[in-house]
């Protein structure tokens, strides 16, 4: 879904007077930049606006009222109907998504962080080879891996289980890449050396010292991974059969494919789509402080 | 700590190895399509069934309560072309397909060609049920051959004419009973600022229904070879007819089931829709402001006095190769699609229109429908169902055929090329697709 577009929101906060220390800019180019940015912000926000307006409408008003403005405001009632439909299966899907994405991103970030840290801070044979392989993994789209994964999971009878979606979500080559770069820059060798002299084991050093220094990068990886899992659609589509295991993307999609038969599903899909992006928006707002730092820190140092 | 990356490397290599063996092993596990040994199992049996009918769980619950020895577990997902068919093929490849699956008639040949379907011709109860199904639906699952029953028909989509009775009456236009009258009515309606109907952009399924009604057939299989003919005389007649309406701007061309499409019907811009039985809900939900103003009449005919009807949609319940319990699976499929309680429940939960003769007379289908001014519209469709030709057959690569032709249709509607050209190129592409899959084609 279009949740990624919310990244454009933070940009607006920079529209104050230019800071005295910053590079000087011409008024004309500033106006130009702001215009371009406003146009894009609008471009990104209009679909969400439309979704919000549409979700607030009564079903009969949906076709014959202005698509970008409200008719009767029925949002609360629509949400109530959605949550009640089929014994609240939608809530179950939201919960599934939260578990797949929350837990998956958390563990995925941890593994990527450990891997990136090890690649950055330890010298061992084959280090570059491993890093290059992981880097190659960034280039392989997750969609292309879904089918081979299905065949592998079939061999061990794990298709149509929680694990078939959860386990592949733990892998984040991009996270390894980012944390490696970041660890190399922000965790000084001297500090690790000092910790060793103080008698701290490698694991303890990692969790008590290095993780804190790598925190901005880890938050960034977590966010990317969370969004990727939340929006992942193809893997669950291939792996899952049981409705109770569906993440919200797949659930809404399967409803949407049945609109011909059960027209009221269209309204549920719209309201459901609106609700499904709310966790992403909240997460971005909560964590933007960290992840903006994270992206910037790696770039300049 | 140094071991960690090494462990990662080892893990990576093992995964790759599994991936490779996984790919090579699975290609051997394709099943054969021999007739199933249809004998009851000794003990209790668990079956899995994949369908995308909303609310199917409750229907199956009825069965499970009555049959403690044959428990069915339902799995649902998006509709067939929305991913479920592809999943079926993947599962057949991996050897873990469900026992039963919902498959639309137009996709059945594809599954058969891939050896995915179990032939139920040895299951006496299935064969004995032939007479309870509407004739043409049985033809869809047997492919018109002896000793073959590749699925149990589930629902059907006989076509009839939805029309705005209030507008026709107010403007003194007679309800067209032939396609020639339909054209004449189209001209009058256009003068009044409306359109007689909407020719959906890229919707080849509706067009296939028109061809079906006219007596055409696109595919034929003589046991070994396939014949593809999307440009026979009948199809050409139908294509030329609609091309004429499009060229003279007598029909609108919104993509179906979009907001514009809903709005065109809701705002009285479009007056009729020659559609399948399930279309009754599409109008009722898409055009709520026109409640009570619609009626249903038999489809216009090519020659006055004829009684032919087309079909649009419909699906079946198939037993996949690899199921260990074809007897029980077939038994369940029969119950699901013939028993009054199951048919009533499916009609209630998802407007499923039955494929059995008795099912067409379900009490729920005899009632008047408020949206249609209280008319008992399903009587019209029950009649239409009996008038659908049993000779229309689908090909084994319909998804591709649909895509190719519908691209051409979209272009034709916007003035680039014609429907006939789209069908010609679709035919060519279909023959190529069959050949590339080593399916024998007669030219």
User: How many domains, in number, for the residues of chain B?
Assistant: 2
**Assigned CATH class of the largest domain in chain B:** Alpha Beta
SSE succession of chain B: HEHEHEHHHEEHHHEEHHEHEEHHHHHE
- Provide a count of the helices of chain A: 14
Helix count from the secondary structure assignment of chain B: 17
- Total beta strand runs of chain B: 11
CATH architectural label of the largest domain in chain B: 3-Layer(aba) Sandwich
Helix % of chain B is: 40-55%
Largest sheet geometry of chain A: none
Mean pLDDT of chain A, nearest integer? 86
For the termini of chain A, the CA-CA separation is: 34 Å
Rg from alpha-carbon coordinates of chain B: 24 Å
Low-confidence residue ranges of chain A? 1-16
The number of distinct β-strands of chain A equals 0
Cα-to-Cα separation, first versus last residue of chain B? 68 Å
- Percent strand of chain B: 5-15%
Radius of gyration of chain A over all CA atoms, rounded: 23 Å
- Pair with the biggest interface: A-B, 49 and 54 residues
Q: Estimate what percentage of residues of chain A fall within beta strands.
A: under 5%
Low-confidence stretches of chain B: 1-34
Biggest sheet: strand arrangement of chain B: 2-1-3-10-4
Structure commentary:
The complex is a heterodimer of chains A (301) and B (443). Chain A is mainly α and 301 residues long. Chain A contains 14 helices and no strands. The model of chain A is unreliable at 1-16 (pLDDT under 50). In chain B, helix 9 packs across helix 10 and helix 16 (398-413) runs antiparallel to helix 17 (419-436). Chain B has helices at residues 3-26, 56-66, 84-94, 108-113, 124-128, 135-142, 165-170, 179-191, 204-214, 233-247, 259-266, 279-286, 326-338, 340-350, 377-386, 398-413, 419-436, and strands at 45-51, 70-76, 100-104, 152-153, 159-164, 219-221, 226-228, 272-276, 294-297, 315-319, 441-442. Chain B has a five-stranded mixed beta sheet, sandwiched between helices. A three-stranded antiparallel beta sheet of chain B has the order 8-5-9. In chain B, strands 6-7-11 form a three-stranded mixed beta sheet, covered by helices on one side. Chain B is globular. Mean pLDDT of chain B is 89; it is low at 1-34. Chains A and B meet through helix 2, helix 4, helix 5, helix 6 and helix 13 of A and helix 1, helix 3, helix 11 and helix 12 of B.
């Amino acid at each position: 879904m279009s949740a990624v577009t919310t990244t454009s929101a933070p940009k607006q906060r920079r529209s104050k007077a230019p800071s005295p220390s910053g590079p000087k800019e011409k008024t004309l180019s500033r106006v130009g930049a702001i215009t371009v940015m406003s146009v894009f912000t609008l471009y990104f926000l209009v679909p969400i606006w439309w979704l919000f307006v549409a979700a607030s409408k009564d079903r009969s008003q949906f076709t014959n009222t202005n698509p970008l403005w409200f008719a009767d405001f029925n949002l609360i009632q629509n949400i109530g109907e959605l949550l009640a439909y089929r014994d609240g299966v939608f809530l179950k899907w939201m919960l599934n998504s939260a578990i797949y994405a929350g837990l998956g991103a958390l563990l995925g970030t941890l593994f990527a962080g450990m891997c990136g840290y090890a690649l950055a801070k330890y010298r061992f044979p084959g280090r570059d080879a491993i890093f290059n392989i992981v880097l190659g993994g960034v280039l392989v789209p997750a969609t292309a891996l879904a089918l081979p994964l299905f065949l592998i999971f079939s061999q061990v009878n794990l298709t149509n289980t929680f694990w078939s979606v959860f386990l592949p979500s733990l892998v984040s080559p991009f996270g390894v890449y980012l944390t490696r770069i970041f660890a190399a820059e922000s965790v000084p060798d001297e500090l690790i050396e000092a910790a060793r002299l103080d008698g701290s084991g490698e694991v303890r050093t990692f969790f008590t010292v290095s993780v804190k220094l790598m925190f901005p990068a880890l938050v960034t990886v977590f966010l990317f991974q969370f969004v990727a899992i939340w929006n992942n659609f193809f893997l669950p589509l291939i792996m899952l059969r049981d409705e109770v295991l569906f993440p919200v993307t797949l659930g809404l999609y399967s409803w949407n494919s049945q609109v011909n038969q059960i027209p009221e599903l269209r309204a549920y899909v719209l309201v459901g789509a609106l609700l499904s992006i709310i966790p992403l928006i909240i997460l971005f707002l909560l964590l933007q402080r960290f992840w903006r730092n994270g992206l910037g820190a790696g770039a300049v140092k | 700590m140094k071991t960690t990356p090494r462990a990662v490397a080892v893990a990576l290599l093992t995964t790759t190895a599994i991936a490779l063996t996984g790919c090579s092993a699975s290609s051997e596990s394709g099943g054969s399509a021999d007739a199933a040994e249809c004998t009851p199992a000794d003990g209790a049996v668990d079956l899995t069934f994949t369908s995308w009918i909303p609310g199917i769980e409750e229907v199956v619950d009825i069965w499970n309560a009555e049959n403690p020895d044959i428990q069915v577990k339902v799995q649902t997902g998006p509709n067939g072309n929305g991913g479920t068919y592809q999943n079926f093929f993947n599962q057949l490849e991996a050897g873990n397909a469900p026992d039963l699956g919902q498959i639309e008639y137009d996709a059945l040949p594809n599954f058969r060609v891939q050896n995915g379907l179990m032939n139920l011709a040895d299951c006496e109860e299935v064969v004995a049920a032939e007479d309870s199904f509407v004739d043409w639906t049985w033809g869809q699952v047997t492919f018109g051959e002896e000793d073959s029953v590749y699925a149990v028909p589930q629902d059907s989509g006989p076509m009839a004419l939805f029309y705005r009775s209030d507008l026709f009456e107010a403007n003194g236009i007679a309800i067209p009973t032939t396609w020639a009258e339909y054209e004449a009515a189209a001209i009058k309606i256009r003068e009044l600022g409306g359109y007689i109907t909407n020719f959906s952009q890229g919707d080849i399924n509706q067009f296939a229904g028109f061809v079906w009604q006219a007596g055409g057939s696109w595919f034929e299989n003589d046991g070994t070879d396939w014949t593809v003919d999307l440009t026979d005389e009948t199809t050409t007649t139908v294509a030329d007819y609609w091309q004429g309406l499009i060229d003279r701007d007598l029909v609108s061309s919104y993509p179906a089931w979009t907001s514009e499409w809903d709005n065109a019907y809701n705002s009285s811009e479009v007056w009729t829709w020659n559609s399948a039985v399930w279309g009754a809900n599409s109008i009722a939900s898409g055009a709520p402001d026109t409640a009570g103003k619609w009626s249903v009449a038999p489809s216009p005919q090519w020659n006055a006095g004829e009684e032919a009807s087309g079909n649009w949609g419909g699906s079946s319940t198939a037993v996949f190769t690899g199921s260990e319990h074809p007897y029980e699976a077939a038994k369940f499929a029969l119950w699901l699609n013939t028993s009054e309680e199951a048919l009533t429940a499916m009609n209630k939960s998802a407007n499923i229109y039955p494929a059995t003769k008795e099912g067409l007379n379900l009490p729920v289908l005899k009632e008047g429908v408020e949206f249609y001014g209280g008319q008992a519209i399903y009587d019209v469709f029950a009649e239409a169902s009996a008038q659908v030709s049993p000779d229309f057959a689908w090909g084994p690569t319909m998804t591709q055929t649909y895509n190719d032709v519908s691209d051409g249709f979209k272009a034709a509607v916007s003035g680039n090329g014609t429907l006939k050209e789209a069908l010609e190129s679709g035919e060519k592409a279909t023959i190529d697709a069959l050949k590339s899959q080593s399916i024998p084609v007669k030219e």
